Amino acid sequence: MELAVLNKEGKDTGRKVTLADDIFAIEPNEHALYLDVKQHLANKRQGTHKAKERDEISRTTKKFFRQKGTGNARVGSLKSPVQRGGGTVFGPRPRNYGFKLNKKLKALARRSALAQKAADQNIIVLEALQMDKPNTKSYVQILSALGLQDKKSLLVLGESNKAVYLSSRNFKGSDVLSASELNTYAVMKAQTVILSEDSLEKLETVLR
């Protein structure tokens, strides 16, 4: 698959790049996509939820009323779950929701996500992007030139660039990742993936 390389003004530079078929032209594996996205979201969960159970409630141990003669049902403890302010039955406890996936499956999921974007023609190749200092206005101008100012986008760089990352941080709906940080969730969340020209070789190394 060949794509034109665009510059920061959104114009064709006259150069073309060939995207690797074993990454961008495979049949997407939906189950691998599902598992990788599920793992990403599970790992983000804090798991700090907690409800007090019966043995953790601090209440008086005095009997509520006498056992016989009142016509009421027997009440043994105010800590009982049926009492107002009592303990919770099988309440949530702190836990780790994360789980592991093997490297080959995760790589397959990332290839499948990129292949899906390529099949939908939602991939743009941009010439190498460099910024000396953070500048949100310049970053927004680049997205506007590409027609992506109102869309969720993901910019993939060859190497981490703090200035580019900081420039995008205040712009809602746009994420910036290096090729080595690329994950399936970020690709699937974006409507359009922008691949920096210098990220292509790195992606081929990481995803194979």
Automatic annotation (TrEMBL):
Record's keyword annotation contains Mitochondrion: no
GO BP term, pick one: translation
Keywords: Ribonucleoprotein, Ribosomal protein, RNA-binding, rRNA-binding
SUPFAM superfamilies xrefs: Ribosomal protein L4 (SSF52166)
Cellular component annotations (GO), alphabetically ordered: ribonucleoprotein complex; ribosome
Molecular function GO labels: rRNA binding; structural constituent of ribosome
Cytoplasm is among the record's keywords: no
Record-linked InterPro entries: Ribosomal_uL4 (IPR002136), Ribosomal_uL4-like (IPR013005), Ribosomal_uL4_dom_sf (IPR023574)
Segments of this protein annotated with the region Disordered: 68-89
Subunit-level organization: Part of the 50S ribosomal subunit.
Chain's role: One of the primary rRNA binding proteins, this protein initially binds near the 5'-end of the 23S rRNA. It is important during the early stages of 50S assembly. It makes multiple contacts with different domains of the 23S rRNA in the assembled 50S subunit and ribosome. Forms part of the polypeptide exit tunnel.
HAMAP family: Ribosomal_uL4_B
Annotated PANTHER family: 50S RIBOSOMAL PROTEIN L4, LARGE RIBOSOMAL SUBUNIT PROTEIN UL4M
Family: Belongs to the universal ribosomal protein uL4 family.
Protein name: Large ribosomal subunit protein uL4
Native source species: Croceimicrobium hydrocarbonivorans
